[in-house]
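tl;dr need the bound structure. longer version: we got a ligand (zinc ion) that a collaborator sent over and nobodys looked at where it sits. i said id run it. heres the input, straight from their email, havent touched it
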Amino acid sequence: MEPYEVYAIRYATMARRSAENFIGGDPHDIATSLDYFVWLVRGANGTFVVDTGFNRDAGRRRKREFLRSPAEGLALLGVDPASIGQVVLTHLHYDHVGNFDLFPGATFHLQDLEMQFATGRYMANANFAYAYELEEVIGMVRNVYAGRVTFHDGDAELAPGLSVHRIGGHTLGLQAVRVWTRVGWLVLASDASHYYANMEQGRPFPIVIDVAKMVDGWRRLRELASAPQHVVPGHDPLVMQRYRAPSAELEGIVVRLDEEPRI
Ligand SMILES: [Zn+2]
């Protein structure tokens, strides 16, 4: 099986206190940040973008520090969003599905349950609806009608060495992505674990619909990866420290994930 290259592109960040990252807070309440990423997976069997990030307007409304458009980040890796045929949406939260309009040629891979959740009864509750942008959900419904969404129900292989796996807890239909690389099976956890600490210390992130399923999800992520260090969390600034930039110009912007982490 041909290995894929995997890159994390950091496009935004937000300062926060560590107590906000765990149910029940954090006894060492320290200043930290929450980073925002999209991911690029490419190899002989295809090029896939995993999530599309949020745009400048959404960042301003929600007071996030927008660093660069995810499209600019992809361009730095020689990828034109218009040329992308396959986008995996781990879930429909605003920071994962904004900018889908920058991918006019893409099919979007989504779990059945995520669309049901984002258009169903729970969206009448602000706690659940808060992280969705109504216009983006509607936009994705339009893509369904246009035949541009491929739905999955649980585990599915999209190409040799690349598969999606539904992980409950954060939303109803989040999916993680498992990729075959030169260091073995790598898992992009997305928000199944925002930080390394959530899954490694067993402390759930507070944006959650089912704590028990989130806990089960961490075990599933570890099962899917060749080694625990190859589970990559969705928002941890440590990702930028543990992995290297592919070139000096990309320092602080892109890291390559199909390597052994430095720490
Ligand atoms: Zn997120």
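gonna send this back to them w/ a short note. Residues 93, 95-96, 191, 234-235 surround zinc ion (CB under 6 Å).
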